[in-house]
Amino acid sequence: xxxxxxxxxxxxxxxxxxxxxxxxxxxxxxxxxxxxxxxxxxxxxxxxxxxxxxxxxxxxxxxxxxxxxxxxxxxxxxxxxxxxxxxxxxxxxxxxxxxxxxxxxxxxxxxxxxxxxxxxxxxxxxxxxxxxxxxxxxxxxxxxxxxxxxxxxxxxxxxxxxxxxxxxxxxxxxxxxxxxxxxxxxxxxxxxxxxxxxxxxxxxxxxxxxxxxxxxxxxxxxxxxxxxxxxxxxxxxxxxxxxxxxxxxxxxxxxxxxxxxxxxxxxxxxxxxxxxxxxxxxxxxxxxxxxxxxxx
Length: 296
Ligand code: MF3
Ligand code: CO
Ligand code: CO
Hints:
four-stranded antiparallel β-sheet, alpha+beta, three-stranded antiparallel β-sheet
């Protein structure tokens, strides 16, 4: 059901009818205010570009390749494999499917995928170091296919996990699941962050603040920011056609982090484990669809 919520328009804001005039000079006091144009309103007010059915189809097709890549990663992850080898496998898959790896050369990122091991929170750079039994490794894949971006990641066990690894991976996966229960028109971005924070902190884990989910589809990172913490009922109202990622990074210890000398690798300040799961979602008339679906 749609909650009774409204979007506040200031007198000097662009008119929600999409005329391009100020609200006060257009529909505010008009006898016959024109209907709200939600596409224009979200573009003008938040910089959010809502997606049309053909765009969603395009992102879904890109997302299918992302999921196939993650499956391929899972098949290849075992003790002894290097993250450089995973990078090569992912890049070859993209090449063979007419897709482009979005991370490669993005703001100077040197590889095609992000591989984040154990205390690395995100943006780990593939390298010539072998995975070890008991590690956890997050692989983050973003592809551009036919002009459309889809973005997803998963944290995998390497060999046999210990209790801490099991716990953090479970809590991170469940955090994304909790977020998904909030993906319905009429809820807000704050509801998503609230659901994640509530669950993760109840489980005695912490939520990373410095990195957030994001709009995606036409570009790698579009408005809005999607924080993984927050207050119920706050923030932008979810409306059909919004496409964004949710990608909670959950830590076993402190939420604090530092970035390594490579200017990318984000590491927990106490070097305790961190895990993450990410999918790309579209808000529909009655809920949501994952455009990068996998079981959690
Ligand atoms: N895929 C990451 C995300 O979920 C972004 C990686 S940026 C890169 O937003 F440059 F490291 F690839
Ligand atoms: Co993302
Ligand atoms: Co990602």
